[in-house]
Amino acid sequence: MGKVSAPLVSQLRDSLRKTNAVGAAETLVPEESSQRTNVLKTPETELFQKISLDRPRSGFATPKPLAESDVVVEELEAGGQPRRGGVRPGAPPLVLIRRLKTPEAKPEDVDQEVDCPFKEFGCEQKDSAHEVKKHIRDDSALHQTQLGDGVRDLKQRTMASIEQYSATFKQIDSAILRMTRIACLYSSQFVWHVDSYAAALQKAKRGVAPVVFSRPFFSHRNGYRLAASFAPFGDGDAIREQNSVFVCILKGEHDDVLPWPFACPLTFTLLDQSPDKANLHHVSVRLTPKTVEANLPFLGRPKSGRNPAFGIQRFVPLSQMKSDGRFVYKDSLFIAVQVDVSAMKEI
Ligand SMILES: [Zn+2]
To answer: GO:BP terms for this protein (predicted)?
Structure first.
């Protein structure tokens, strides 16, 4: 229990005096005339009514309610004498009288030392029950100070706990955030190395093989099984102008526990391979699948080995795909496919 500074004590006393102002008249009544009827109706006598001034001095301990063991039942004959022997024929009906055994008086209780009820607030007074009663009556200022101390201490400890908890919650929040970021970095980005670009472009121009496919990859841990595809000479309306990039959903081992149709936004990025790493200009296009009925063949759960591909027809202009330029270096290019699974519940 901490010590209270002098100004605090007087402040506390002032405020208590104010709150007791209503009861002040009662405390002025002389003890003799009021005859033990709530002579001191201060807050602490209200709180600790166990030691009431109304109680007779001799029986300080509260009489226990009568228990089964306190009752003795004896059979008495009509004359009031305890019955002996068997039942005589023709004897008058027995009158059963229950005699109550009163609890034995315990005179030692009167002088036994008891603690002041304010012990847990720091009061060390220990005396006979009668003296403690007087102490409660006379030392109310001391007890108020002790209570004030206790409340102040409790307040400090509560504030400390609250601060500690909010610090812990902040730590948990930041740990979750970091975990989510790490999970995204490790699980949902696939970087596809497309080599022999010149040969692939020639084949596409001649219409022999308009599209090249990546190896299968997963959207995230225990996620969708996907494959990327790339049309070096473009696809559909974009042919001869811009290349195209796609993704398709393959049958995967986690399909049973994944949500369908597939709805994760995808980001395709053609990586800038310039030696000046401080000044890179990757080309990124984000695609958010529309889960409408017409798109179900692309986004629904694959019935055969793979769904038809969907993606970005107009990706990067062919004019930007010069060999040993930004994007084609040593006849290779790199396409990153990032699957945004943040809106999806982790399995
Ligand atoms: Zn005390």
So the answer is: regulation of canonical NF-kappaB signal transduction
